[in-house]
Amino acid sequence: MMARKTFRAMWAVVAAAGVLALSGCGPAPSPTSGPTGNSPAPSGTSGAPAKKIRIGVSIPAADHGWTAGVVWWAKETQKLYPDIEWTLATADSPDKQIKDLETMMVKGLDGVVVLATESAPLTPIAKQIHERKILLVNVDRGFLEPVADIFIEGDNAAFGRKSAEFVAQRLGGKGKVVVLEGIPSTVNTDRVNAALEVFKLNPGIEILDRQSGMWNKQKSLDVMQTMLLKHKQIDAVWAQDDDMALGVEQAIKEANRTDIKWILGGAGMKDIIKRVMDGDPMFPGNITYPPSMIALGMQTAVSVLRDGNREAILKFQPRHLKIDVDVVTKENAAQYYFPDSVY
Amino acid sequence: MGRRSVHPMKLSEWLPRYGVLVALAILMGFSAITQPGIFLSPENLRNLLNQNAAIGIISIGLTLVIAAGGIDLSVGSLMALVAALGLITLNKLTGAGQTEVVAVMGAGAVCLGLGAGLGALNGLMVSWGRIPPFIATLVSLVAFRSLTLALADGGEIRSSSLIILPNLGQGGIPLPMLPTPDGRPLMLTWGILAWGLVALIGGYLLNQTRFGRYAIAVGANERAARYSAINVGAAKFWTYLVVGVFTGVSAFVLTARMNSVASSSMGLYYELDAIAAVVIGGTSLTGGRARVWGTVAGVLLLGIITNLLVLNGVSVYWQGVVKGLIILAAVLIQRRRTD
Fold first, then answer.
1. pLDDT single digits (tens) B40-64
2. Domain spanning B19-28+35-333: CATH 3.30.450
């Protein structure tokens, strides 16, 4: 009996060790966790082997279409600069992301590009990175203190505002609208609040209902199905996000509703852009929110660090770049169409 | 569910046993009153069943696992992995020139077969490996999701079946006596029917087969079961295999409905909802006491809560709290004074 108990205890320890090792990846683990260094540096033709510049990239895990796009763009941009020693880590929670960044710092870094899972919890470690004089490029979700050397953000307020303006304009200032929201987060709140401001200025627009579709096609399908039963007459849907827009569309089709004239999604999924390009009446437009902004962050980090002119470049490099979101319509859709993108 | 005496049950016995039905009735009544005409409409009721069919099917299998004293945390990730490979198989078969029917059947076969295989893997870890089920299925939860993400690069797998699979997802048996607002007969989807079938099979396995009896015995008192010459390891193993097969069915049902597989979000946190449903339904989490019909009621209870919150426009921030409180209440009602 004793031997069996010890045997079991051993197994439990082995299993627990295995779990701890794997749980370093978290419940929804990243496909690439830890160092993904590129091809070894060619021994410099100039004689002395060039010390490779080490840049870390810390981004959210691909939990929906947009974040999957971010991961894809990050991987593609790595290929553009094979002379840089890249470390890419994806995280499904702020907790995991902090661990990723700490690990990268231990490894030793010249610069790091961070797209925060959430702004507040990541600010302390961002401060630490800044104090260590590691170049910090902050993309999209800003830290609560100005510790980043360069901050590139998409304008979520503009996203919400332009979306609402598109909806109001296209409905001619009068109509019944249903709103789908994203995962409760600062990104979602900024967008929705800005949109509601615009809708307030258009009293003819009636917001029938607001529910979260969690930026998820399946959840949006279920939620929209229920909302369709509740509201017998809807003119248009602001779905805020293209994954959700597809779920909404499926719900409408399954319920065979003809009153809904069109859906406004967002973030420029390639299939939706194609439909805008082709003049699909259900998708008359889109608002961009390019996941490729991570590529811009990475490119900026490279250009600042590459030739050793960091201090000089930072004298003129803007510290805060706000990427405006664009309204996509049939006329200009072609320039927003990237058929090879994963998003 | 044998009654020990012929006297009518006291409330303290009756409530834990049938409390879930009371809760269900109260909620349905509440929903019918606050959302007149909408909640009880045939379409809403059908949606309720359809939207919860995937979780429902998984929960039946989980009932068996929990009855035998085990737990399976990996069901959500297993579903995603099996669905991903099933859809990849479908696409590969289509690419290889097979007809759509063959491709869809291939996907179905992969879903069931791989579901069984991965369930067996869990079973082996628990029975032969003697690894505590929590740890073993935690490992597979993480590993299966990781594999799914790797297969799909974190993105979505689209189906190359444009007619048959979506029709399986949306079609079913038409019920002409229950028209929808646009006049077409209400469709009792294949997903709902699959859930019903799985529930019947699950109930049969649990209550009418030796395997079910052994599973309950193992869950109630593993040592006593072993001394009664029950092969404890085998009993446990088969419960994990069964939940794997049922999860495969669920994977196929959900893939048909979405005609795609979202590698990062499909099945995410399903295990929590499934376990909650099983527990609400009156199955003891420590094993030895289980009810398939209770699990079905539990799934419906959770589904109605969500439906109710959406219909009433409750902010999504509050939905979690409301859901948690109702689950707590349901479990408290079902507490038994003696065991």
1. 888 889 999 999 999 999 999 999 9
2. no
State CA A124 to chain mean position distance.
Answer: 21
ipTM of the complex model: 0.76
Query: End-to-end alpha-carbon separation of chain A, Å?
Result: 57
Contact residues on chain A for B126, CB-CB shorter than 8 A:
none
Token output for B130 = 């003697």
Separation between Cα atoms, residue B210 and residue B326, nearest integer Å: 35
Residue of A nearest to B77 (CA): A28
- Chain centroid to CA B27: 21
Residues from chain B contacting residue A64 (CB–CB below 8 Å) = 262, 264-265
pLDDT band at A86, cuts 50/70/90?
Answer: very high
**For residue A267, what is the enclosing H or E element?**
none
Question: The pTM is what?
Answer: 0.80
Provide, for chain A, the percentages of residues in helix, strand and coil under a 3-state DSSP scheme, each rounded to the nearest 5.
45, 15, 40
Q: What are phi and psi of A305, to 5 degrees?
A: -90, -20
Q: Do B313 and A210 touch (CB under 8 A)?
A: yes
Structural domains in chain A plus CATH codes: 31-36+51-148+291-324 (3.40.50.2300), 156-287 (3.40.50.2300)
Cβ pairs A/B, distance under 8 A: 127
